[in-house]
Amino acid sequence: PTLVAAAILVAATFCTRAIALGASVKWRLLFRVMCHGIQQRCIVLWGVPMPICARCAAIYAGLLAGLAAFAFVPRVQERAARLLSAAAVTPLAIDGLTQLAGIRESTNPLRIATGLAAGFAFGFWILAAVERGNDTVLTTS
Predict the structure, then answer these.
(1) Cα 122 from chain centroid?
(2) How many whole angstroms separate alpha carbon 99 and alpha carbon 36?
């Protein structure tokens, strides 16, 4: 997950920079398989909207941060990390669903905050689950 999240963020940043330097905006289409890329919902770098939305960019960044933070935290139970993920995804889901239903319009700062929290917690959960899986293998061998 680390390499995928990092690769997507780096590629989206390079794409944004290339467009800012004169490349075709059609390069944004490569990212449509991952994200809607609605320009009003994207972070603007160098005067150009990124090809992934603010929420997706924040999820990938949060995932990387959660994976990195895991190394500095004492042993965490997988169940606790899963509950943290569920709690962290709830605001993201509420934000996205209320926007989708037309009840309200979200903002990029809110998309970034909810994306970072969800990505961070999910990254943390991934490593807690992997660590638990390793413990199971070690205790049953």
Answers:
(1) 9
(2) 14
Distance of CA 10 to the CA centre of its chain: 13
Secondary structure of residue 17 in the 3-state scheme: helix
Q: Per the structure block, which two tokens stand in for 135?
A: 């413990």
pLDDT value for 124: 85
Cα distance between the two ends of the chain: 27
This prediction's pTM: 0.86
Residue 51 phi, psi (nearest 5): -80, -5
Under 8 Å between Cβ of 43 and 55: no
Radius of gyration of the chain (CA): 17
pLDDT digits (tens, 9 = 90+) for 110-139: 999 999 999 999 988 888 888 766 554 344
Q: How far apart are CA 131 and CA 125, in angstroms?
A: 10
Match 């509420």 to its residue by tokens.
94
Q: Token pair for residue 20? A: 């800012």
